[in-house]
Design a protein that fits this description.
mainly alpha; 13 helices; 73% helix; globular; transmembrane; transmembrane helix
């Protein structure tokens, strides 16, 4: 051995595994898993595009009625281009935020397979969140892009005037996914106590379409109702927030408030998920699970 090398101490090796490595692996696994559902993805894109045409003509009729009544070509502060953009981007966001249909945790609770999740070294909330973010990444590439491209092909959509709007929309969309995941996780976690989630899922299906801004923009509601939804519920942070940022409604101050609300709801919901999961694990131990 060279004499100089003999005096060099070995570099310390950190034996502690990084938590980001398994979470990244789970995100990649989530991306790959949902990329295999090719027929379902095509069917969803076709369905969302068809409903996009139906909603577009409803919004155009709304603008025409508002113009005839007030002489101003906008409805609740939205121009025709903004409303059409709102329509087609919401059709794309349905798959990104996974507003409906996610019952992975509830199904595993019902079958008892959730016990395997509890044996893993990672927190179940973080594990499912990582998988969901991977799923959302795939959905952005297909479920989001296809309907928006179809809408842009047949209608004049709103193009953001400021370059900063694009990264702000991307951040808002990610926060919308996290907020929706938190709601869905809590919804599924009810299965620890009820086992049968069909009634809860049906109620979620009815409520979300109205309150997240999918059926119509929330500014169509009275001011007090819209403010109540923003302050007291996480629903507007799922879709209405990202869409208002994209169509640049209300200016930069409004965009900042939207991101703040989404961030706060993300933290509150993830902490709530962790608390409910902890309570559920105690319940399983008491039951001898």
């Amino acid at each position: 051995m060279h004499p100089d090398l003999a005096t060099v101490p070995p570099e310390p090796v950190d034996a502690r595994p990084s938590i980001m490595s398994p979470l990244w692996a789970l995100a990649v696994a989530g991306f790959r898993r949902y990329s295999t559902y090719r027929q379902a993805t095509v069917a969803a894109c076709v369905t969302n595009s068809v409903f996009g045409f139906l909603r577009s003509f409803v919004f155009l009729a709304t603008i025409a009625g508002a113009t005839a009544a007030t002489g101003v070509a906008n409805a609740a502060g939205y121009t025709a281009e903004q409303l059409l953009t709102f329509c087609w981007v919401t059709q794309g966001l349905i798959g990104v935020v996974a507003l409906w249909g996610w019952t992975d945790l509830g199904d595993r609770i019902r079958t008892g397979d959730v016990v395997a999740d509890l044996l893993r070294p990672l927190n179940p909330v973080l594990s499912y969140l990582a998988i969901d973010l991977g799923r959302a990444g795939f959905a952005v590439l297909i479920r989001f892009v296809v309907p928006v491209a179809v809408g842009a092909l047949f209608f004049d959509l709103y193009v953001p005037r400021h370059l900063a709007t694009y990264p702000l929309f991307a951040v808002s969309m990610i926060l919308g996914v996290v907020v929706c995941f938190g709601c869905r996780f809590l919804l599924n976690a009810v299965g620890y106590w009820l086992l049968d989630l069909r009634g809860v899922i049906a109620a979620w299906f009815v409520v979300t379409g109205l309150f997240v801004g999918l059926t119509f923009p929330l500014p169509f509601l009275p001011d007090w109702a819209e403010a109540t939804l923003w302050i007291a519920t996480p629903f507007p942070s799922i879709m209405q927030g990202p869409l208002d940022i994209l169509v640049e409604r209300g200016g930069q101050a409004h965009q900042g408030l939207i991101l703040l609300a989404q961030s706060l709801w993300s933290v509150v919901l993830l902490l709530s998920c962790a608390y409910v999961q902890q309570r559920a694990e105690r319940k399983l131990v008491i039951q001898g699970g």
